Amino acid sequence: MRETSRNGQDPIVKVRGLVFARGERMIFDGIDLDIERGKVTAIMGPSGTGKTTLLKLIGGQLRPASGTIVVDGESVPDLGVKELYRLRQRMGMMFQTGALLTDLDVYANVAFPIREHTDLPERLVRDLVLMKLQAVGLRGAAGLMPNELSGGMARRVAMARAIALDPMMVLYDEPFTGQDPISMGVLIKLIRELNDSLGLTSIVVSHDVKETAAIADYAYLLSDGKVVDQGTPEMLWKSASDWSQQFLNGKPDGPVAFHYPARSLRDDLMQGGQSR
Amino acid sequence: MILGPLQLLGRKGLAFFERLGRGHLFLLQTLTALPGLVLRPGLVIRQLYSVGVLTLLIILVSGLFVGMVLGLQGYNTLVDFGAEESLGVVVALSLVRELGPVVSALLFAGRAGSALTAEIGLMKATEQLSGMEMMAVDPMRRVIAPRFVAGFISMPLLAAIFSFVGIYGGYFVGVGLLGVDDGAYWSQMQDKVDLHDDVYNGVIKSIVFGFVAVWIAVFEGYDTVPTSAGVSRATTRTVVHTALAVLGLDFVLTALMFGD
């Protein structure tokens, strides 16, 4: 039987029972999540919870220990290299650092996936690149090198590159980290607008709660390898979960304790001059 | 008490062999990616410039000075036996058989090898390689293979240029400054330097050294720990490992080629 999701459509990404560990450390301990077509879905959680790892698992750069990851009907861990690369051509990814090729200018960076995967004449490539750069407001920066761009501009170029091949889905890895308010506003606007105008599906991995919640249609909160909470941003703000409330409101103490686990302060102080 | 050092030795040994295995698998992947370059010669040509042409200056200058030193030292030794007219042979054989391939490989590691490692390592650290994979572009085909081929082609050519310039350096000192007979310098060289035994063997050496040097350089870059300290360590390892590998292989090759 075909599994349908919240809005009755087949989800574009379906993760079930995902287990992934790095050495001894368990990153995901049996998580389930669905990414709806046409929506902006946020994956939020504290640093080190494996949000970027989840994107790499969806993109097939990492393989899970167990569980299934199905993207647009294809089981990612079971794909051969050729099929995986074919699937990736239908995905765009914006890395936290932008990951622009530093020996190419902005124009060539955006043209890179088009030139690699199509035989379009250079005139058409130029038109496509300029249209993508226009969409992110950087047509005028086409001749700049990556080292001449601000952090926000580099991410917008990366965004233009991510949509260069008109993908079905774009993965954003921490798009707002370290951005000034104006750049942040631009990125928030672009993610939402590109998603809606190009008919994309967007997955935004972030720990910037307010910014991400402002554009997300649905959000998952991850912590300690589990999905702690999920729902629309409105539902999450009203969540009864103490953990969700602490994370979303940035409270210093709560289920995530302020103090790192230790024996009692009294015991430590009474120890006198004994070495630890 | 004794367990500690033994454990350490075991751990280091395992790490060494694991890395050696990874290096060989990497080489296999690189060689598999080579046929794809036939359709994209532009990628190799661009790398030939940065790996080969940009190394040319240090090769020319070093070759000239090494040749001049050989001319001077050779003359000082040969003149005691009245054999200074054999200077051309001494200079040419030293360069073609040994110094050309070996010194140019060491210079290649210092100039081009370290640059390759740092470039690939930084591409890894800044997620450029990962970004390529997500754009469905194989970094082995797009980044590693063209650099590998460019290094492999460049090294023997650089070694040949090194020897060529060195012979002229020896000529300049021996004939130009110390008065060795011009004709004797060239004719004795022509008479005694054998195309098969000397020149071909020198070329084979430079091909082997080029293969090893560029393999080490691209592998260290690809296998680097993606941090600034990791890239720095990888760059150092490229130079050290290439130097050790080249000198060790030089002995083995010399024994095979010239040992009776």
Description of the molecule:
The complex is a heterodimer of chains A (276) and B (260). Chain A is α/β, with parallel strands linked by helices and 276 residues long. Chain A contains 10 helices and 10 strands. The model of chain A has no long low-confidence stretch (mean pLDDT 88). With 260 residues, chain B is mainly α. Helix content of chain B is 85%, strand content 0%. The longest helix of chain B has 39 residues, at 87-125. Chain B is globular. The chains are: A alpha/beta (276), B mainly alpha (260). Chains A and B meet through helix 2 and helix 3 of A and helix 5 of B.
Structure summarized in a few sentences:
The complex is a heterodimer of chains A (276) and B (260). Chain A has 276 residues and is an alpha/beta fold.
Topology (elements, then pairings):
The complex is a heterodimer of chains A (276) and B (260).
Chain A: E1 13-22, E2 25-35, E3 40-44, H1 51-58, E4 66-71, E5 74-75, H2 81-88, E6 91-94, H3 106-117, H4 122-135, H5 151-162, E7 169-173, H6 181-198, E8 201-206, H7 209-215, E9 218-223, E10 226-231, H8 233-237, H9 242-249, H10 265-270
Parallel strand pairs in A: 3-8, 3-9, 6-7, 7-8
Antiparallel strand pairs in A: 1-2, 1-4, 4-5, 9-10
Helix pairs in contact in A: 3-4, 3-5, 4-5, 5-6, 6-7
Chain B: H1 3-33, H2 41-52, H3 56-78, H4 87-125, H5 128-134, H6 139-177, H7 182-192, H8 195-222, H9 228-258
